[in-house]
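User: Could you write out the 3D structure of this protein bound to fe (ii) ion? I've included everything you need below.
Assistant: Certainly. Input first, then the structure.
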Amino acid sequence: TAVAVYRGETNYLETKIMRPLTSILEPFVGGLVAPNDKRDTIDSKRDGDITKTEASETSQEPRKSRNIEVRFVNQWHAPTSLFWERSEDDWIQVAPSIVDEIGLGTFVGHRFMFTREGTRDQIGDEVEIVASQLVYTLPKNAKPRSEIDGPCTDRYPRRCASLAAHGECDENPGWMIVNCPSSCEACELLDPAKRCDPARLNISLEHIWSPGDLDKTFERIMRDFVHLKPRALSKPPDGPWLIVFDDFISDAESEALTRWGHTLGFERSTDSGVKNERGEQTKKVSQGRTSSNAWCRRDCEEDPLVDSVYARIEEVTQIPRDHYESFQLLKYDVGQYYHTHHDMSPRTRNDAAGPRILTFFLYVSDVQEGGETDFPRIDLRVAPRKGSAVLWPSVLDRDPWLQDPLTHHAALPVKKGVKYGANAWIHARNFVIPNKYACTGSVA
Ligand SMILES: O=C(O)CCC(=O)C(=O)O
Ligand SMILES: [Fe+2]
């Protein structure tokens, strides 16, 4: 098996190298997944992606016998990510951040490319591994492909044409416009200002809450959902609302969420950086957050045991589910944590979906020791207990466009056991439509 050396993150990369084929093109665009490639006909719907990738790995078997270890050197002015070609015109990220260089196990004939860190923005040319060369350098003066090919060029020349012919420009417009603008004849929509204009997306500019609605929502929850055993650890006027539900999800629901996390594959959590000119948010391996996570989309979201959790959150918050991000499933091993942060970034006020206004955090497992959610500014800690949940606002009652700084929080390190959790983030406006059009960089 390949041995990876990656700036102290050996485990992460080893995992990626040993099973790169289990994760589909997820990291390319904030919140979006590549459409299933229609060239492969897949009978099993649920496990379609996995079936497909296993098959393509087998077909590469003979090439793997020519394993070599090589170094990739980044002399470009900014950090880059590295992608392999998994099968013809189908690329997958294998190294999220190369500041100077990394070593990787690979095989002769394998093709790779560098991209701008955390995006699919190709920098320089594609290169093929040859037996006589052990070092591959991205030069200082390498140019983004978009500068050479023109701004409106497909990133996957063959695949884009095929996907467009199968209607994916309408089915999956965000990923398709960003990656296949030429095949979708959508050059003008590459510009996020145009693509994400709320008027074009036909979404209301209104905030779901008027001033005063936040307090009313929490008061109603305390009054009407006694069977979920809500306890207000903090409430106005002494502090922000912070409600723990001792009984929020069933064992079956908890187990379904954990199972989905493993099926989809937990990957090291990322921070989001700047947006590029196509509106893609760059992603960096997070320093402040050492957990791993997976996004519950598609089949996961449709699982009745996940659907029922969504339905309960809708009932409790009275905010429709098209304001929610997909569940972010989290896993913390011993020593892993998330430093103090806020879930709502003030700059998201201008996003089509508006800022996050509520966090529903689900505790999906018991933890033997550690792993509390800590709210340092109000001196409160919530210990994880399987089936419980905590709910807090990210914004202020008197002006729900503004961040409430008192709900900064952290996940304290797990000391013993494994912690599983799930975030449901709720936005001021419709999230689903902007997300479909690649207008919600801020997924993680
Ligand atoms: O794990 C926790 O307790 C909190 C996680 C969190 O704050 C987040 O993912 O934004
Ligand atoms: Fe958080």
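The chain has 14 helices and 23 strands.
User: Perfect, thank you.
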